[in-house]
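Sat 14:20. Reprocessing the chain from the morning session after the first attempt stalled halfway. Input below, unchanged.
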Amino acid sequence: MTTNVPSATPAGMIDLGGELSVCRLGFGAMRLTGDGIWGPPKDRKAALAVLRRAVELGVNFIDTADSYGPHTSEEVIAEALFPYPAGLVIATKGGWNRPGPNQWTHDATPAHLRTAVEGSLKRLRLERIDVYQLHIPDPVVSFDDSVGTLARLKEEGKIRLVALSNVTEEHIERARNIVPIVSVQNRYSFADREWDYVVDYCQRNAIAFIPWFPLGAGRIAAGDAVQQIARKRDASPHQVALAWLLKRSPMMLPIPGTSSVAHLEENIRAASLHLTDEEYAALSRVPRLVATR
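Finished this time. Tokens:
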């Protein structure tokens, strides 16, 4: 692979709801927190540097959530990048409570979502959130009520575009009867394709698909097919995994995250790695893994 300065630009662009256009290789900011996705990062200066470098390399879509920290990720993003450069899109989410490290409890009640949106606006120093995602359907709250709340917040001008995360095709259909949905974020990678049918649905309906866990938490390095392609192309296994996602669908918007500038630059180089049809097929035949959040 090239040794030149990496750029996200070769990944191409993707349209969000006919209103925003972003580079098809974004950045996920969950890891810019402490252990257990709790508290401040161990090295705040490094976290700030990663965000600033991502933007320098052409990333203009950053994904976060109020539950990351909680609140820490949003605060670090604002500290690093405000005032935001033109064209930068920050997507955040709500629908979880965080009682402690590695602990997540549902709360997608209308009252909680309203409070979450107001908090995100304040922490991100925004008057309107470009993309706001329901983080996960709440099993004890009406899904329609949760989405309806986001629709009303959109009407009030606090949210520009509404999106979903951790959902089925049925959820997406129901939500689209309430408000336009511009993106769906589910767990997905070349070796974890449980949500293939949702990717296909999103492609048919011009909805961006944002894969979380796109690198299989490092487990991809054990795959013979990945290693063979990586050696052949002078690339890393992570770059090959990201290149597979970018080839999988034109509506794919990977958001690999890291707290290291060197790892960020490695990931961004995947934008310039274009797999052949044969390489793509070889990875698609890899036995699927079962991943957990």
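The mean pLDDT is 94.
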